[in-house]
Amino acid sequence: MIQVNAMGDACPIPVVKTKNAIKELNGGGVVETLVDNEIAVQNLTKMANQKGYGVKSEKLGENEYKVTMTIGDTALVEDEEEVVCEVPAKGKNVVVMISTAQMGSGNDELGATLMKGFIYALSQQESLPKTILFYNGGASITCEGSVSLEDLKSMEAQGVEILTCGTCLNFYGLSEKLAVGSVTNMYVIAEKMTQADLIVKP
Amino acid sequence: MSRQKSPAIVLSFEKTTDAMAEEKYCLANNLPGRLIPIPREITAGCGMAWK
Question: pTM to 2 decimals?
Answer without folding.
Answer: 0.62
